[in-house]
Amino acid sequence: MSTATDPQPQTPQQQPQQPLRPPQPATDPLLMLCLVIVGVLVLAGAGYLCVAHPSLTGPIETVAAVAGVLVAAVAVAVAVRRR
User: Fold this and answer.
1) Is 60 within 8 Å of 47 (Cβ atoms)?
2) Among 45, 64, 41, which residue's Cα sits nearest to residue 53?
3) Confidence class for position 31, pLDDT limits 50, 70, 90
């Protein structure tokens, strides 16, 4: 009895590579709209307080500076997490 030999070496079948993570869903437009509306209202309220009560301008500027740094830190953390 003779056995047939295959001249080509057998290699495992190559499967298409799957992404490591499933694709991230797109940001919900309604959520973005709500965030923009809240941001505009907060800025409008702070502007009104600065105009109507000039003595509050200093504390509002301080809080706005700290809030800006915190927002930037959160944005960087979210951007790094989504990669």
Assistant:
1) no
2) 45
3) confident
